[in-house]
């Protein structure tokens, strides 16, 4: 996937062909519910590998008094419990003002299977967590600016344009106040390999009054909606944040 050719000042790709998956019937006592299920093929979101993230919407089929929340619990008990997310504490000022220093991030895992499938899970404009290309064992949070196949041209006349190889990506920080070398992004270390991208930040938490969704590519945000609808627990994020503060205070 490449950045749109025109008309997109945000650099975020759009996809008007988003389709809803099929339906499957589940029983909850005397009441039957239909649970949205992912399609059999063509799934680039990774949801087909974990059916409890099909679509967070249940519809009552027969008359009954079972509450919406109870139906949810009943349906989810029938499905597997493998989590697709984890928490991460953001470090540095490179992603200001999108993310603040020490923000707790809700990360959706993007496990690497093969180059083609991994690329299909991400879009230009996504905020991703990746392995630090310079410091082994360190991790960075940056925004995807371009993917393999894109031609890169520098404002420095001494630098020659080049086309990124398939499986490569160009990442940038959001903090325009920093010098390129301070930003620690692709302007410093060049393209990264998509296999070094571990996940996408989909929610941020700083305080109970300062939290919300991370602005990603609109298509990716649609893909992530079922995941955070099921797994996001802001109380748990607050507990994680408090533990991080206690650790730093020691």
Describe this structure in words.
This protein has 250 residues and is of the alpha+beta class. Helices cover 22% and strands 26% of the residues. Strands 4, 5, 6, 7, 10, 11, 12 and 13 form an eight-stranded antiparallel β-sheet that branches. A three-stranded antiparallel β-sheet has the order 1-2-3, with helices on one face. It is globular, with a radius of gyration of 20 Å.
Backbone shape: globular
Query: Which value, in Å, is the CA radius of gyration?
Result: 20 Å
Mean pLDDT: 76
Percent in helix: 10-25%
> With helices defined by DSSP (H or I, 4 residues minimum), what is the helix count?
6
- Largest sheet, if any? 8 strands, antiparallel
Indicate the proportion of strand residues: 25-35%
| C-alpha termini separation | 45 Å
Structural class call reads alpha+beta
**Which sequence of SSEs, written as H and E, runs from N to C?**
EEEHEEHEEEEEHHEEEHH
In terms of per-residue confidence, which ranges show pLDDT below 50 for 5 or more consecutive residues?
1-65
The number of E-state strands comes to 13
